[in-house]
Design brief:
Shape: globular
Low-confidence stretches: none
CATH superfamily: GHMP kinase, C-terminal domain
Radius of gyration: 17 Å
Distance between the termini: 42 Å
Number of domains: 1
Order of helices and strands: HHHHEEH
Strand order of the largest sheet: 1-2
CATH class: Alpha Beta
CATH topology: Alpha-Beta Plaits
CATH architecture: 2-Layer Sandwich
Oligomer: single chain
Mean pLDDT: 92
Length: about 140
């Protein structure tokens, strides 16, 4: 179902409760974001990919409601840093981890700035790991 179809159907009498409609909206919009993310990655458009990260986090926070205050704070700290294209929670939800898309040459500065900003905002220490995207898992032929 397209986002447009979903929005049209929920404006009509969908029979969904408000909370079910928000959960469904997250899934429909997240599917659209994933499909767009594939295309923007192929095109090398990191700016748009970062925007999709940010939109995903907002949807996870507001529609799916699987974040918490500490996780929202670290995502906000990341999003505020120079060189950060976007950030979002990742994993199973209800706390845990965030991922940020950052300019490679700003990674070290980003790590220190996010750690300091998060400590100031939350009083907690963050563990920040720098990694680089790779091809991922594949079958190795012997």
């Amino acid at each position: 179902m397209s986002v447009e179809d979903f929005e049209r159907k929920t404006k009509e009498e969908s029979g969904l409760s408000e909370i079910a409609a928000r959960r469904a909206r997250h899934i429909v919009t997240e599917n659209a974001r994933v499909l767009e993310a594939v295309e923007v990655m192929k095109a090398g458009n990191v700016k748009r990919l970062g925007e999709l990260f940010n939109a995903s986090h907002i949807s996870l926070r507001d529609d799916f409601e699987v974040t918490n205050e500490a996780l929202n704070q670290i995502v906000e700290c990341a999003q505020e840093q120079p060189g950060c294209y976007g950030a979002r929670m990742t994993g199973a939800g209800f706390g845990g981890c965030a991922v940020a898309l950052v300019q490679e040459e700003k990674a070290e500065e980003f790590t220190h700035a996010v750690s300091a900003a998060y400590r100031q905002k939350s009083g907690l220490d963050a563990s920040v790991y720098v990694c680089k995207a790779s091809e991922g898992a594949s079958i190795i032929k012997e």
